[in-house]
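Bit of a strange request maybe. I'm writing a small parser for structure token strings and I need a real example to test against, not something I typed by hand. Could someone generate the tokens for this chain?
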Amino acid sequence: MRSPKGFTLIELLVVVAILGIISALTIGALTNALDKGKQKRTMMDLHSIAEATESYHVDHASYPAGISDWATMQPLISPFFIRDPPSGDGWAHTWAVVTDAGGNEYSLVSLGKDGIQGSWTGGMTNSFNCDIVFANGQFFQWPQGSQN
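Reply from user aminoacidic:
Good idea to test on real output. This should exercise your parser:
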């Protein structure tokens, strides 16, 4: 009688197929979890920048006026109101910033995973590509529930 000294080709193919299925399922869940983490980090960073913007308002009786980009806004709040402001969102896109000419309103925006400015309808979103908007002291558009 012959003693088994190894695996047959069929056995190896079955194992490789099972490992492939498991890794495909795991990678999808892992990617979703990473994007969810980036989204949460983005929301926290927006909130921190908004707190610095509100502190600016307390000291100057208005928000920075006529700002249309992060490069102009950053030196006005750093290092006085926030020591090290995050330079971009969780996906490494630069913040979008808009303030009105009178310094009465502001919007801080993450362009989402795709980095493309979308429409600001307000309320909850369900896609990682949707913009996250913090305006005048509160989230105007934010992610809620499972994302795609």
